Amino acid sequence: MASGDNWFSKAEDDLEAAELMREGGKFSQAAYLYHQAAEKALKAILIKENKGSPRSHDCFVLAKKSDAPQPVKDAANSLTPYYVRTRYPDSDMVSLDEKEINKVLSDCREVLEWARKNF
């Protein structure tokens, strides 16, 4: 199993890649990577706390298991749908506008800032 440090490093990589996608106007891809950054940061926390690494893409569940405060759980909850909705063309939401991606970015930052402080 990878260490919490490895998971957190991958979270940071996904955040950097998401920024590049957002700047390039690839909002769906950016949203997916923002979700991945949050998911991996939360898993890093869980690994550090010896709570394992659940095979879940539900950021809310991960935030709840890591005892995150409510604002972080709320942000994590809003990120969860982007795991599926940005990956498949027949899903409910495959395109995002700039306002929406900025909200996704804000939610990702909320999760990662908390995770950094607690890692």
Q: What does this 3D model show about the protein?
A:
The chain has one domain: Four Helix Bundle (Hemerythrin (Met), subunit A), CATH 1.20.120.330. Helix content is 71%, strand content 0%. The protein is built from six helices and no strands. The chain has helices at residues 4-23, 27-48, 59-65, 70-79, 82-85, 98-118.
| Structural domains: how many | 1
* Full CATH superfamily name: Nucleotidyltransferases  domain 2
Query: Count the helices. How many?
Result: 6
The class by helix and strand makeup works out as mainly alpha
> How far is the N terminus from the C terminus?
18 Å
CATH class: Mainly Alpha
Q: How is the main sheet built?
A: none
Percent range of helical residues = over 70%
CATH topology: Four Helix Bundle (Hemerythrin (Met), subunit A)
Number of strands: 0
Gyration radius, in Å: 13 Å
Question: Low-confidence runs (pLDDT<50, min 5 residues)?
Answer: none
The H/E string reads HHHHHH
Question: Which architecture name does CATH use?
Answer: Up-down Bundle
Please state the average pLDDT score: 93
Strand content: under 5%
User: Rough shape?
Assistant: globular
A few lines on this structure:
The model has no long low-confidence stretch (mean pLDDT 93). This protein is 71% helix and 0% strand. It is mainly alpha-helical and 119 residues long.
What is the topological layout?
Layout: H1 4-23, H2 27-48, H3 59-65, H4 70-79, H5 82-85, H6 98-118
Helix pairs in contact: 1-2, 2-3, 2-6, 3-4, 4-6
